[in-house]
Amino acid sequence: MSRFFHPRYANLKPYVPGEQPREKKFIKLNTNESPYPPSKRAVAAAKAEAERLELYSDPTAKGLCEAFAQVVGVSPDEVMATNGSDEILNFAFMAHCGADRPAVFPDITYGFYPVFANLHGIPYTEIPLRGDFTVDVEAICQTPGTVFLANPNAPTGIALPVSEIEKILQSHPNDVVVIDEAYVDFGGESSVKLIPKYENLLVTQTFSKSRSMAGARLGFGIGQAALIADLQTVRNSTNPYNVNRMTMAAGIGALADEDYTKANCKEIMRTRAKTATALAELGFAVLPSETNFLFAKHPNIGGYELYRALYERGILVRHFNTPKLKDYNRITVGSPEQMEALLRNIKEILEEIK
Hints:
This protein is an alpha/beta fold. The protein is 37% helix and 14% strand. The longest helix is centred in the last third of the chain and has 24 residues, at 258-281.
């Protein structure tokens, strides 16, 4: 760091994204990207909009917000488009937390939550997951503060039913409850249906996973109009042109092709179930997943050792080197062919260590 870096950030530990190696070709199962390309309608719309890049994008994202609102079943003034769902999460920390309003989230969850809290000087409480890696809903209900909850959770893949989310909302009437639904399209139950009932509910979603648009960076916040207005104030005070023209057009194109999205999600869920069964037959403990990834460990090989062995064979999975997670690896559900290659290599690795 330079001598000009402000000391308030001296101890800030940035979020660490998954590896994006360039030195050789990998079967890439580490960052929960879709194995399928984006909708052809999305690609065509983005290409057409590339001819107009001399013009700023619409700061209201009107057409995009209207299309998304129709798909999820809310009013256009109840949604806001952002540069990936990370941006709406950041805005929520800025708008609804502070030194006098702490954040609350599980101790094992999306790694950006503590980063955002530390970035903005927000105190926070981490609620330990139970021994089976499920969220301790009762403990969250008893802890004051703005709640951030990934549902389904990451990196575990375990989902809570909406009835449990409602308990949290009812226990925090004076706090915002943020439900991060990055993976909800792979079998989870969305909390969007609760928005008319709860003024303190903010749901975030992304096009990175189910709509194959990780590289486009498009996310949404969904909540009652007053809550969205809070976030619009923050957005317009930082970057009102936060969604570029090509991404906006691609998003509208993807929303016009929901059948394609649903078909891809169903295929990923089928592949997930088949892979989970195959891993279990190889002796893995696999957590129940409602996401596009699996979280698994094997009794005969450490998480890091398996990660390295697969890396050397050209297969990339995600390893988290923390005490509670070090035995596990998070494995993105790729195409059937990619998962067959994964399983074949795992079998060979397990044979080698016998």
